[in-house]
Write a structure and sequence with these properties.
alpha/beta; 2 domains; eleven-stranded mixed beta sheet; ten-stranded mixed beta sheet; 3 helices; 21 strands
Amino acid sequence: MKRVIILVLLVGVAAIAGMFRSHSSSLGHRLTAAVSDFQESDAREEIRKTVELSPGANVEVSGINGAVTIETSNSSTAEVYVERTAENRDALTRRQVIVEASPTSLKIRGEKHESGLISKVFGSNAKERVTLKLPRQVSLTTRGVNGSVRVGDIDGTVNVHGINGKVEIGQAATAAEFNGINGNVSVSLREVGKEGVKLSGINGNIELRLNDGVKADFEAHGMNGRVFSEIQDVVVENQRRGRYSAQVGGGGNPISAHGINGNIRLTRLVSKS
């Protein structure tokens, strides 16, 4: 009798173990499928556009959640490439990038669409990477960019506002303005026009590369940092704490800086071969 009872118990244990293995295998399969589905849900979108711009056209890039790279040339053709990525298609549609173009204007802007409370609180944001090829003879404005901004040579005015990342400008020809930047700024100045160059509210170091023929009056105040000159004939005067001045090329149009949390370095622009 005892042998029969033991046999029955063994059979029962084996059955339970088999059910557990089957359930574990099924659960593992479901987990693998869930991971695969998540990976396959990654969404991506590309925007490409080509437009002819007239000399002096205005180009504006705003509201971009990612890096902006702008190459320039002597061509009159502008090429726009935007790569957008998100965890899923819903996240991608919660933001849009709008491209508006005409011969005198090119605008690339990111904007959010209305969404439910749960999406606003828990939903992820799409990311963008903007790459432009522009004519040099344009005026450029970039603002509200959550990423680095790199720009080639621009013959028109340059305005850079509200950037969370490093800013590099190959060469600005006349007037430029930089404010609200959380990152280092590097800009070359071929000349300084009557409107001058303005830098304010910058949390980072600044390098101003000045062409040999630049004539300007430099003044900085409200500095949490120092001003250095690596140009042989330019002497920086420290008038009092946080205030500096210098004459470049005997003086001329203004270069002003205030509210800078970092150092400013004046260097000579090396001519391109």
